[in-house]
Amino acid sequence: MVSSGTRITAESLPEQPAGKEVRLIGEVVSFDEKEAVISSGDAKFKVLKPNKDNYANTRYVEIFGKVSDPADTLPSVEEIKSIPVGDKFNISLYQRAIKLSTGKFSHLFEPAKRSETMDVEE
């Protein structure tokens, strides 16, 4: 089973420690059996050991993986799992949502605790 990983933007990948499980979405630039190059906004990153079937017929892909080398010229993630997202995806909107949910307003995106929810009687 794959853990959910932390959703991040490609721009924040160099700040992540090696071994951390992350989730990213980006546009497929190129791929082969050894690696894929993904573009997400203004940043690019490599995916090591990609499942090439998930990259072949889609423009965008979601990657679950472990940060491999965040300090490299092109940061890399070793793929655990990938999911084709399709050809129509608003990467700009996605990045803004991730920045909101992991930044200053992250508390708004946390699940409510049971004590904070209202029980409604029928």
List the helices and strands and how they pair.
Layout: E1 6-7, E2 21-31, E3 35-40, E4 43-48, H1 53-56, E5 60-69, E6 76-86, H2 91-102
Parallel strand pairs: 1-2, 4-6
Antiparallel strand pairs: 2-3, 2-5, 3-4, 5-6
Explain this structure to me?
The protein is mainly β and 122 residues long. It is built from 2 helices and 6 strands. The protein has helices spanning 53-56, 91-102, and strands at residues 6-7, 21-31, 35-40, 43-48, 60-69, 76-86. It has a 5-stranded mixed beta barrel with strand order 2-3-4-6-5. Strand 2 (21-31) and strand 3 (35-40) form a beta hairpin. The protein starts with 5 loop residues before the first strand and ends in a 20-residue tail after the last helix.
Oligomeric organization of the protein chains: single chain
Largest sheet: 5 strands, mixed, barrel
Mean of residue pLDDT values = 85
Runs in which pLDDT lies below 50 for 5 or more consecutive residues are none
> What portion of residues belong to β-strands?
35-45%
Number of strands: 6
Helix content: 10-25%
The N- to C-terminal Cα distance equals 38 Å
Can you count the helices? 2
Structural class: mainly beta
- What order do the helices and strands follow? EEEEHEEH
List its traits.
five-stranded mixed beta barrel, 13% helix
